[in-house]
Amino acid sequence: MSDKPLTGRATADRQPHSLAAWRRLGGGAGLALALKRHSPEAIIALIEAAGLRGRGGAGFPTANKWRFMRAGAEKAGPGACYLCVNGDETEPGSFKDRLLMEALPQQLIEGATIAAYAMGATEVIILVRDEYRAAAAALSRAIVEAEQTGLLGRDILGSGFDLTMRVHASAGRYIVGEETALIAALEGERPVPRHRPPYPAVSGLWGRPTTVNNVETLSAVPSIVEHGAEWYQGLSHTNEGGTKLYGVSGCVARPQLIEAPMGTTARELFDLCGGIRQGRALFAFQPGGGATAFLETAELDVPLDFAHTKRAGSSLGTGALIVLDDHACPVAAIGRHMRFYARESCGLCTPCRDGLPWVAKLLDTIEAGKGTRGDIDLLHQHVALSGPSGRSYCDLNTGALTPLRSGLERFGDIFAAHLQGSCPVGRA
Amino acid sequence: MSLSPAIRTAIAQAAAHHGGPKAAMLEALKLVQEAEGWVSDAHLKEAAEALGVTTAEIDSLATFYSQIFRSPVGDTVILLCDGLSCFLCGGDAVRDAVMSRLGIGFGETTPDGKFTLINICCVGGCDLAPVALVGPERKLVGPLTADDLDALIGGAR
């Protein structure tokens, strides 16, 4: 029994297994158990007991989401219900789902099949970003193999459960990873977020009950069913179950993906990456991707799970740790993020469409040593006006301004030094 | 030149596979782009007709997605990541080198039509930063140095 349920079966060169090889490695056991021994409700109870929370960034309890869907399906009556797999991983610093889709497509397909059975979905659509062509190809091949061997289609493993699955390759835009924009994308609409309510579990794809789950979340499901909730909980260092696929990048000696117990600390992860590169010192890190607040040396021993990271003033997000050393200017770093978010805004809401390019330009000016006190005041205003709700349809704007908010709070002296034309930490 | 019968057939198949003509619009654009390198006004209109949707509907997607090219691109498209992780690993030096070698900026194509350089958001290769996606297969290359990219460009020339 592996202590790495997500990546334990991946090969070093990330080449996907054939279905036969996957089975020789023990793959498929979770699905067989799910369909033969458990009712859908029992699987949801198992996922709840395991403490699985969504790995796409928000950390919402997976079992609750699946229950909403069952209730939505019951209310909606006969007809298709959808599970959409979010494989549009575009957040700066995130590279975990690429591995899971490229190297372990059967594991994701198995997890999605169990999830569909549990929540009452009749069709699974895996949306993969265009830049992950190897992943889309691996998944498409694995789906065909599964169909040919009775693992997808009609009467799966003689259980009476029918399910279709297909891959939808996107074409490059960060916003497609937002839940409602993803649904719009699959309908052929311009992929901009939609207002909630109605929530997708009530009215999602084509107006039917729909659940959107992240690749990592679903990839954890087969092993939970196979080995049980207690085993999965036991893998974690905290009371949030299981393992987490942490991605460490930036100023470490060996940037890499690490599957480790949920609640592993940044200190432990950085040590596994050979420490801060070139013998330099840690300056700051974002624990969960581009849209999360900075943490510093004082927070190196925070267990990185959803609750502890939040208590420390940031969020676990996707578990994508971006590391800045003491030669990396935070003004330049935040500016990079801001250019990304400004470019990737779908343009639907004013704070995002007009606000973010303005912020990016202000940061460029300050980075170049040409800023004024008034520019810093404007940045504070942008941050203050980026409400978490009511001002825009989705969280892109709020998320985009999170590193700026955090940077202004923690590194105000460095912003101030830039106004005098100098950068105390220097460029990366 | 009109879209080939093979592409028209593939577009019809996409409509069946994706649950209807509207849902297949993006796939139709990608099929056109795969065959032609980019999506011209004329081909956009033909794709719309093949699906039975309006030109405006399909153009609303073509102008939204960053990997649908509405103007001609070079034989080899280099998508250079400008995310933070790449920046922290020396991405700016690679960017400057490739721009200098090709004599173009982001969004531009070399006069001989061989290369187009585009900046792209984080491509999920942060462990290999700085990275680029190169060519029709969107092959991930990294960690890049200025010399690596020079060799890549030189090899293709």
TrEMBL record, chain A:
Please indicate if the UniProt record lists Iron as a keyword: yes
Q: Which cofactor does it need?
A: FMN; [4Fe-4S] cluster
Q: What are this entry's molecular-function GO terms?
A: 4 iron, 4 sulfur cluster binding; FMN binding; metal ion binding; NADH dehydrogenase (ubiquinone) activity; oxidoreductase activity
EC code: 1.6.99.5
| Keyword entries, A-Z | 4Fe-4S, Iron, Iron-sulfur, Metal-binding, Oxidoreductase
Instruction: Specify the NADH-ubiquinone oxidoreductase 51kDa subunit iron-sulphur binding domain's residue ranges.
Output: 331-376
A matching Pfam family: NADH_4Fe-4S
Role played: NDH-1 shuttles electrons from NADH, via FMN and iron-sulfur (Fe-S) centers, to quinones in the respiratory chain. The immediate electron acceptor for the enzyme in this species is believed to be ubiquinone. Couples the redox reaction to proton translocation (for every two electrons transferred, four hydrogen ions are translocated across the cytoplasmic membrane), and thus conserves the redox energy in a proton gradient.
Protein family: Belongs to the complex I 51 kDa subunit family.
PANTHER family linked to this entry: NADH-QUINONE OXIDOREDUCTASE SUBUNIT F (PTHR43578)
What is the protein's name according to its record?
A: NADH dehydrogenase (Quinone)
TrEMBL record, chain B:
What the entry lists under SUPFAM superfamilies is as follows: Thioredoxin-like
Keyword Cytoplasm in annotation: no
CDD domains in UniProt? TRX_Fd_NuoE (cd03064)
Residues holding [2Fe-2S] cluster = 81, 86, 122, 126
Q: Which UniProt keywords apply?
A: 2Fe-2S, Iron, Iron-sulfur, Metal-binding, Ubiquinone
Give the protein's cofactors: [2Fe-2S] cluster
The protein's matches in Gene3D superfamilies, at most eight in alphabetical order, are given as:
Glutaredoxin, NADH-quinone oxidoreductase subunit E
Please give the Pfam families that the UniProt record associates with this protein.
Answer: 2Fe-2S_thioredx
- InterPro entries reported for this sequence: NuoE-like, NuoE_dom, NuoE_N, Thioredoxin-like_sf
Q: Does the keyword Transcription apply?
A: no
Q: Which PANTHER family does this chain map to?
A: NADH DEHYDROGENASE [UBIQUINONE] FLAVOPROTEIN 2, MITOCHONDRIAL (PTHR10371:SF3), NADH DEHYDROGENASE UBIQUINONE FLAVOPROTEIN 2, MITOCHONDRIAL (PTHR10371)
In the record, the note on similarity to other proteins reads: Belongs to the complex I 24 kDa subunit family.
State the protein's name: NADH dehydrogenase (Ubiquinone), 24 kDa subunit
Organism per entry: Rhodopseudomonas palustris (strain HaA2)
Lineage of origin: Bacteria, Pseudomonadati, Pseudomonadota, Alphaproteobacteria, Hyphomicrobiales
